[in-house]
Amino acid sequence: MTSAPPPTHPTSTPLDLAGIGIGPFNLSLAALAHGIPDLHTAFYDQRPAFHWHPGLLIDGATLQVPFLADLVTLADPVSPWTFLNYLKSRDRLFPFYFAQRFHIQRAEYDAYCRWVSQELPGLRFGHQIDAVRWNPERALFEIDFTQLDTDGEAEALGRSYARNLALGVGTAPYVPEPLRPLADAPTVPVIHSAAYMDNRQRLLAAEHITVIGSGQSGAEIFLDLLRNRPPGRERLHWLARTPAFAPMEYSKLGLEQFTPDYTRYFHALPEAVRDQLLPEQWQLYKGIDHDTIAAIHDELYQRTLHGGWPDAVLTPGVTVRTAGRVGNTRVELHLEHIQQATRTRLTTDAVVLATGYRERRIDTLLAALDPYLRRDAADRPRIDANHRLVLDPAVTGGIYVQNAERHTHGVGAPDLGLAAWRSAVILNSLTGKDPYPLPDRTAFTTFGLTGPSRRHQGLLPGQQALADRVASHAAGPASAGRP
User: Fold this and answer.
1) Could you give the dihedral angle defined by the CA atoms of residues 385, 389, 393 and 394, in that order, rounded to the nearest 10 degrees?
2) CB 30 within 8 A of CB 43
3) Over the stretch 125-150, which tens digit does the pLDDT of each residue have?
4) What is the CA angle 261-264-269, rounded to 5?
5) CA-to-CA distance for 335 and 346, rounded, in angstroms?
6) Rounded CA separation 180/333 (Å)
7) Most buried of 13, 312, 322, 374, CB within 10 angstroms?
8) How far apart are CA 227 and CA 365, in angstroms?
9) Using CA atoms in the order 48, 49, 54, 60, what is the torsion angle rounded to 10 degrees?
């Protein structure tokens, strides 16, 4: 006995593009797609509303990219969804002008994205995607979803159809293996930095706190804890696996590794070279902002003015071998210093894991499509230059990925500064036209002796009709159909 299919989504016409996940990257894609006439889209997210890393919205913490790296500006500066237009809608342009801030606070970026998510049509929050299949008879993707109520409970089932998909399911907090059993223990606060703000008061009440991780999140959390502990009784440890608490690469030519030119260069490299190169580039995206490093040193120095040293230990080059509980309320960390080849133990009352994030695997979501996926030597999905999964030719629709392609596109994959450019690449590829013309050159640096092609790859068979439809509007203004 087979169950009846869920009811079809109210949209009678198949979608040209269905987005799964509404983080900043798919929100960027939705905003730029809205500027293309006759392009039918919908974006789904199981959360009830947009929120961007709420656990890390520490007071005063800023983005590591300029405000121009918003959702749309670097592809379409006249879009109604720019950060500057957000400020204008709030009568805040002049205050921002006089504030002279090139890097905005995280909380302000979160508020800006939420404004876009509330004003932009076609976003469907409270929709959990359950399965994605390819329907060869209809030459469409079938998307089964569960509509959730405000409490997150199932309210209704539905199905929609789309010619193309964009996966923006984001990343998940990474907890190192030795600490995973402790992270779920209710009596000992061993929490990931993603949940820092929810646990901040509990952490500050702990007698001794250990922060693990040398990136920007670890630095911001250590600084916040330091500023809120009494002088001489800070009782803080900051441990890192990297050989130093190193600054993020922020030189002007160094930053050109976050340009489309470098992304194209990286994608054209052999797979083995890309895999070797990525770990060597850790300081491009795992380092610490210069201002944050300076603020930490200033705070520590301030606490020496009246003699003595702060009770804070900062040790790089350390790995956590194992960990366990001591009684019901303490944690014992077994540490190893790689360069010294020494080991020791550290007992602490709370641990903050600033250990980063890992790309969410798309295999579960695309389980029904697994026979069609083409993989590389390491069993990872192959992804073409247009951020499109390489599929069996029997699938005539495209599946685009956002922030799931670092192994093919390099360190810029999770960078907010390339969000608008990647969205434009996807939409240009999807339509077979250039609704968002992109520059041929974006860097003074020439990467390699021979350059990869800068033209987007060809249309899939199922995208030709969309290209023809978009072409019929080519004579109209680029902003047609906008509010």
Assistant:
1) -160
2) yes
3) 999 999 999 999 999 999 999 999 98
4) 125
5) 7
6) 13
7) 312
8) 43
9) -160
* DSSP 8-state class, residue 9: P
pLDDT tens for each residue of 157-210: 999 999 999 999 889 999 999 898 888 777 778 999 999 999 999 999 999 999
What is the Cα–Cα distance from 441 to 457, expressed in whole angstroms? 18
Residues in CB range of 481: below 8 A, 6 or more apart:
34, 35, 36, 37, 38
CA distance 409 to 406: 5
Residue with tokens 């409270």: 126
Residue 167 CA to residue 45 CA, distance in Å, equals 11
Cα 29 to Cα 42, 198, 396, 424, 436, distances in angstroms = 11, 30, 21, 8, 12
Q: Cα(313)–Cα(237) distance, rounded to whole angstroms?
A: 5
12: three-class secondary structure by DSSP: coil
User: What number of other Cβ atoms are within 10 A of residue 139's Cβ?
Assistant: 16
What is the separation of C-alpha 299 from the centre of its chain, rounded to a whole number of angstroms? 30
Cα–Cα distance measured from residue 189 to residue 319, given in angstroms and rounded to the nearest whole number: 20
CA 370 to chain centroid: 24
Q: 144: which residues sit within 8 A by CB, 6+ positions away?
A: 6, 129, 130, 131, 132, 133, 157, 158, 159
Ramachandran angles phi, psi of 2, nearest 5°: -105, 140
pTM of the full structure? 0.91
CA–CA separation, 176 and 212 (whole Å): 10
What burial letters (b/e) apply to 435-468, b meaning 16+ CB within 10 Å? bbeeeeebbeeebeeeebeeebeebbebbeebee
Residue in 80, 74, 354 with CA at minimum distance from that of residue 211: 354
